[in-house]
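hi support,

uploading two proteins for the ticket. first:
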Amino acid sequence: MTDWARVTQGASLDCLIQMYGSSTFPTEAIYAAGAELARRSDPDPTPNLTKWRAEIAAGVRDEYTFDDLWRAACRDMDSGSGSIQ
C-alpha cells in the first residue's frame, strides 16, 4: 500500500495540483494532495521566531544578542503560537 502522505510531502507544487484535480489517482492520493496543498499554504504563525531560530542554527547570531529581531521573536512566543524547541 502506498503512503500517499509521504509521497505528497516530497512532490512539487505542479504535481500536487495535478494529483488534486485528477480522477485517475486513488481517493487517498487526492486527499493527501489536498492536505499537503493546505499545509503548504498556511502562513507561518511566528515569522520572527522562525527567522531568529534559523539565524541561531546558521551561527549568524548567538542566543545573547538582544535586538529588534529578538524582541519580535519574544512577542511571537507571547502570542501563544510559538513553542519552545
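and the second one:
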Amino acid sequence: MWIPFEPDMLNDEDEIVINCRTEEGERFVARLMDQAGITYPDGVSVSSKQCWLDGGFYYRVFGGKTRRGMDVTTSTFGPTCLLTYIDAEINEIEISDAGFESVICAGGGKARR
C-alpha cells in the first residue's frame, strides 16, 4: 500500500521508495535529500542530476544513499520497505510482491516485518 510522502521519512533508518509523478515533485524530493545529506552511491548530490523521465520516476533511499528507477510496477522491494508517493492521487499501485510481508503503520510510521 502506498502512503503520502512526508519529508521527515528521510530521517528513518528503513528503506523508502518515493514515487514521483511530476518533474516538480522529483526536483522537490531531490532538494530535500540534499538537505538531509543523502547522496547517490558515488557521493554525487541528488539535485545535481536531472533524472526526470515522462511517465513517472522513483527514488529508493536506504542508509543515506539513493538510487533511481523508472517503473515501480516492475520493481521488487524488500519486506521492510516503506512505499510512498508525491504529486499524485495514488490509492494503490501494483508491484511485484513475491515474498513481500510488511505492515505499514498509519501516520508516516515505519514498515516492519
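thanks. also noticed: Strands lie at 3-4, 16-20, 57-62, 65-69, 82-86, 103-104, 111-112.
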